[in-house]
Amino acid sequence: MYNLINQYSLIFASAFFVIFFSLIGLRFFSTKYVLVFVLLSLILMILFQSIQKNSNEDMSSVQSFENIRSSGSPYLVYMYSDY
Questions:
Q1: How many Å apart are CA 12 and CA 78, to the nearest integer?
Q2: What is the pTM of this model?
Q3: CA 22/CA 16 separation, integer angstroms
Q4: CA distance 8 to 72
């Protein structure tokens, strides 16, 4: 459970802040403005998530890793396990 919370902490924190500020905004502004705020916040969160997401699949085999390693350019090895 802790890994699930840690993995999606940005989403949980963003949702909390959007809900919190929307509820406060409903007391001071009309519903139209709050709805625009929520929609803009969701669009910004989706854009930020898509920018931060790494979908690079260059190293799908050992040979491709060896090619990248021997190229002389900097590289980063990130290992992930579900266990």
A1: 24
A2: 0.54
A3: 10
A4: 35
Low-confidence ranges of the chain (pLDDT < 50): none
Q: How far apart are CA 17 and CA 45, in angstroms?
A: 12
Q: How far is it, in rounded angstroms, from Cα 48 to Cα 17?
A: 15
C-alpha–C-alpha distance, residues 42 and 15, integer Å: 9
* Domain definitions of the chain by residue range: 2-56
Amino acid identity of residue 76, one-letter, is L
State the amino acid at position 59 in one-letter form: M
Q: What is the DSSP letter of 81?
A: -
- Contact between 22 and 34 under an 8 Å Cβ cutoff? The reply is yes
Give the CA count within 13 Å in the CB-facing half-sphere of 23: 5
